[in-house]
């Protein structure tokens, strides 16, 4: 009975989607100056919508039918559920690849939602959605060049490799060489992004809203809202170029002590448009490739600390944040000055790629978020509650908000132990987190619906950075949390001082800083003792 009702719901969505797609395509034909493109839309958009509807209905029926009459909590049910999760994740991955564009963006988002979706989805999406996306044929690349720069790539560059070195949701990257011999990376937007983006967004919104009406606990409407706001910015490559230059300028002005350790490729403005971006080609190891990083003579632990430091400076001090720091967007190379640490290892430089998605944090958001992380590091329950409320979590969901940020249950969040937030990365810990997510799924959905969109992006950034740290360290380290605590605490002191620059305020800020240094010296000492204890036990 339930299966039949799900199929009927899926059929209704498919018909509605087809109607919307057909209407959009007909409107395109009526208004387009390019009838061939309009005809293409008329035939492809409804197919994409029906494909989406069919996939959603199939997944719903698979869950209902496969788990029918299996006792809750039984080992058999858990085994079958794991298999259904895998099948469903692969169906979604196949749908994303067939439809492309906004669907791949959705798949990437799903891959970061460790606290909300089963681990099988996270693994499949992360494996396929970062740099294994479908490739646009070379004739479409040439179309973009002719439309944007008036010539084919072969006439613009001395050399141009028609085979891309990477392909993502919105674009693919080709290697080229300018006429003065400079090796460059050319980012070319997929043509279908412009053609079908509006219809794709409407269809995804229709499906998500329909599923919410059928299953009220399934509320991903916030995800559609987030993509609708961020996608236009990401599709403007000139905006991306400006973001990259502003990011480096912020490090030079506001964080000069770390500026040499962070880099973004130089932009070739004369060869860039809103749909083409020509940049300096960067050699380096992808940040989750530990073996490649070690071959460079760099310690992965040093890279993890640098990533934490760089993003802490962006979030708590600059207020201008790269919000898509997944592994494909971060490279590591040895610091060009060839400086080495006390162990003779080369110091790392972090290369930031894909600057399409940035967020400005206003003073209050930045101050409250920094205060919250300071409270999380120091296990200050009252400050966690106060600042969570200020950020939109409300009176009743602050513990859940803290859990999402740290991936720890409340009793661990407020544990005074120095390493209370460290993630071990064990199977037991992952299993506990999944159980926690399953138990509190409705409350998590409610929290995500209540939080301001800028905080949702901070959550996404936090999730990406956690995944990066996990790949580098097989978990997380106390050092990275100490860095976050120190930078967030410094930002709180600076923010308080900026509100009132009187002598009294200055003296109070100075005393706060002295106390902060003493506190972090104590924590660092505790860390050294922990390392010594582990070494002796080993």
UniProtKB/TrEMBL annotation:
What are the ABC1 atypical kinase-like domain coordinates in residue numbering?
129-387
Q: What's the domain of life for this entry?
A: Eukaryota
An example GO CC term for this entry is: mitochondrial inner membrane
Recorded hits in InterPro entries, A to Z, give: ABC1_dom (IPR004147), ADCK1_dom (IPR045307), Kinase-like_dom_sf (IPR011009), Mito_struct-func_regulator (IPR051130)
One GO biological process this protein is involved in is: mitochondrion organization
- Which family does the entry's similarity section mention? Belongs to the protein kinase superfamily. ADCK protein kinase family.
Q: Which PANTHER family match?
A: AARF DOMAIN-CONTAINING PROTEIN KINASE 1, ABC1 FAMILY PROTEIN
Tell me what this protein is called.
ABC1 protein At2g40090
Organism field: Cucumis melo
Name of encoding gene: LOC103485571
